[in-house]
TrEMBL record:
Annotated keywords: Coiled coil, Cytoplasm, Exonuclease, Hydrolase, Nuclease
Quaternary assembly: Heterooligomer composed of large and small subunits.
Official protein name in the record: Exodeoxyribonuclease 7 large subunit
GO cellular component: cytoplasm; exodeoxyribonuclease VII complex
Length: 457
């Protein structure tokens, strides 16, 4: 290795970690616009600060996310682990730890915005083709002889239209082109009926109408086939779909958009307020132009705000708030671990104290005394048993030599009246009274004859 490669770099060429992370954050935030991302929530945390921290994952990857408290004002639901969501977020970097993360600005459950996104995508596509340009929109006839209505023959919209036309323009004829206004195949049938009405050329203007409903209910009027059929129709088309707040692709493609079916009937029926309506149309055109200019200004302001936010103190405060939440979680873990250690130490001391307690020694002494008492009782019983056996043996021996045993064999003890024992016939004479003691009981008798030993020989 050459000597030049070992020379240290200039101080200005050495970056700190903080500078590296800061520059990486700037590069990420400037390099990516706000993105819509769909995924599943996991590792959700709600610290006391009110911010939300979680991971957004799919089958093969995940990314850390932070949604700060101010961005949660328009959150219409409570996010939970395992829930699939769609978030609008900006790519960033948590400088304190060098972690890649998303800063979430908006969130909604996945699937809720699918139709809206499809609506916006088709709207942008057709607008790019010039299908919504004001230049190609045809003027409405001032006094139409016949008015065609493409709608359901049984809905509320046709009743409102007929009532309004009868009140404002009774001389006008109404031709109803019946179609289903929602459900499978409704869009194709609406497009086919518009084609039929244009081919017949029976009327001077066509009202495309239906009553209000959800975005799903109005979806037949958001299909591309309907928009193209409106523009292909040679007769001016007025769209009166839903309520005033409802906008469909058909509204943008039509020559005139009315807020309701009743408004569509009013738009094609002249009356004493015709000039007021003309002024209102001009006002609407001016409003659209102003809105377009305002939209451009908003985009310009958004760009400037994004550039400003990279150096705004609030950005630093967000970083510090996230750092504070992380330190709070670490402090909580340390405190819980310290408390657990103290609890274990306290339990150990309590066990030692119980072992050293006089009550424990007293219990042991009582147990020892009880054991000694049991041993003494067993020893006494054993000794008494031995003495009983010995006494029984002596009793049997004594019984063997006892006079009573002799009496049991049929002998008797002869006594004189004064209680002396008669052992020799010389102690008696004929006529003496004697007593004989038997094994059981006594008898008294008189001596009839005395036979001495020498006489008996």
């Amino acid at each position: 290795m050459s000597r030049s490669l070992l020379q240290p770099p200039e101080p200005a060429q050495i970056w700190t970690v903080s500078r590296l992370n800061r520059e990486a954050r700037f590069a990420l935030e400037q390099g990516f616009p706000a993105l819509w991302i769909e995924g599943e929530i996991s590792n959700l945390a709600r610290p006391a600060s009110g911010h939300l921290y979680f991971s957004l994952k799919d089958e093969s990857a995940q990314v850390r996310c932070a949604m700060f408290r101010p961005q949660q004002r328009n959150l219409g639901f409570r996010p939970e682990n395992g829930e699939k969501v769609l978030v609008r977020a900006r790519v960033g970097l948590y400088e304190a730890r060098g972690e890649f993360q998303l800063k979430v600005e908006a969130m909604e459950p996945a699937g809720v915005g699918a139709l809206q996104r499809a609506f916006e995508a088709l709207k942008q596509k057709l607008a790019a083709e010039g299908l919504f340009d004001e230049a190609i929109k045809r003027p409405l006839p001032a006094m139409p002889r016949r008015i065609g209505v493409v709608t359901s023959p049984t809905g509320a919209a046709i009743r409102d239209i007929i009532t309004t036309l009868g009140r404002r323009y009774p001389m006008g004829e109404v031709i109803v082109y019946p179609v289903p206004v929602q459900g499978d195949g409704a869009a194709e049938k609406i497009a086919a009926m518009l084609s039929t009405a244009g081919r017949r050329e029976e009327c001077d203007v066509i009202l495309l109408a239906r009553g209000g409903g959800s975005l799903e209910d109005l979806w037949s009027f958001n299909e591309e086939v309907v928009a193209r059929a409106i523009r292909a129709c040679p007769i001016p088309v007025v769209a009166g779909v839903g309520h005033e707040v409802d906008f469909t692709i058909a509204d943008f493609a039509a020559d005139y958009r009315a807020p309701t079916p009743t408004g569509a009937a009013e738009a094609v029926s002249p009356d004493s307020t015709e000039w007021v309506q003309w002024l209102r149309q001009r006002e609407q055109r001016l409003e659209r132009a102003i809105n377009a200019r305002l939209q451009q200004s908003r985009e310009r302001v958004t760009t400037l705000q994004r550039r400003l936010s990279l150096r705004h103190p609030g950005q630093y405060l967000q970083q510090q708030a996230q750092r504070l939440d992380e330190l709070e979680r670490r402090a909580g873990r340390i405190i819980r671990r310290r408390l657990n250690d103290e609890y274990r130490r306290l339990n150990h001391l309590r066990e030692r104290l119980q072992l050293a307690s006089p009550a424990v020694g007293l219990d042991r002494s009582k147990q020892r005394l009880q054991e000694l008492r049991q041993r003494m009782i067993r020893a006494m019983e054993r000794r008494c048993g031995q003495q009983r056996q010995k006494l029984g043996a002596l009793a049997r021996t004594l019984h063997t030599v006892s006079p009573l045993a002799t009496l049991e064999r049929g002998y008797a003890i002869v006594e004189s009246p004064d209680g002396g024992i008669i052992r020799n016939a010389d102690q008696l004479m004929a006529g003496d009274e004697i007593r004989a003691r038997l094994a059981r009981g006594r008898v008294s008798a008189h001596v009839i004859e005395v036979q001495r030993e020498d006489e008996s020989q």
